[in-house]
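Why this split exists: single-chain examples teach little about how molecules sit against one another. For that reason, every record in the complexes split bundles all components of an assembly together and asks for one structure covering all of them. Below is a record exactly as it appears in the raw files.
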Amino acid sequence: MRLRAALFVWASLALPLGCTALAGLDDDYVLGEGGQSAGPTSSSTTTGTGGGSTTTSSSTSGSGGAGGGGQDGGTVSGPCEGLPGPTMVDLGAFCMDSTEVSNAQYLAFLEVGLQPQVFTNDPAYCSFNTSFVPSTWPAPAGHDDHPVMWVDWCDAHAYCEWAGKRLCSAVDAGGTGPFDGFDNPATSEWMYVCSGSGAQAYSFGSSGDGTVCNIAETGIGDTTVVGTMPSCAGVNAPFSQVLDLSGGVHEWTAECTGYTGADDTCAFRGGSFMHDLNGARCTVPDAAPRSATWSDGGFRCCADKLAPD
Ligand SMILES: [Ca+2]
């Protein structure tokens, strides 16, 4: 297993907890108004199966659902092959998971039994996180290959590190970058891919009704098996191999305001099955405390390309 430690040197730009309107960013979208979801908050209560209910605790117990399925061990030819989790897409400067991480893939990580703060790549600012088990777990029956949800930022970070990957962050910066660059395709990996290098508003293009993706207008009202909406992908190669950036579940990124602990604000991207087309734009400036988890929030990983042996 290749483990690659991310280097975090971002400046702290303290924002209020539950920050919803990010000054200077796409302010016609306000968290919770992109659709039916109330979005994440810093409340201390949890559970629920929909409606965007959230929690900042991630220490509930659970034994996990059934294993198997998903795209574990998927390979591509190139420098990012053979890593756990979704098959990766070679995007030139870096690689990105082709889909969101599924429940079965996350279960494989849990079954290894790594413990927070014992796992050597778990950073000090994640010391609040006492368990990698999602705050609502196990996943519903039949959802093995649906996106994992109810994970806080540190859960997502740990999974990616275990897989030899990292959360998607800044272009050409090896996992570091300023939070305020997250809607710029020149500085944000996630934005670069979603926008097709700045060419489009949504991951699937700049026009259409968006029902090629799992958003509110599509009417599914739940997650789907990852990667099963083939038109919810970029227009041109290699972006066309990356699925479900718009809709499905929100995706944590390593675009955070600081690196101090649970209250740092981190960006999550793309809207979800609860959000309308407006909320699925690549530029939507959603963000939440690092400790937040919610009913339509998951993640995918990126990776630095390794030099050929
Ligand atoms: Ca998504």
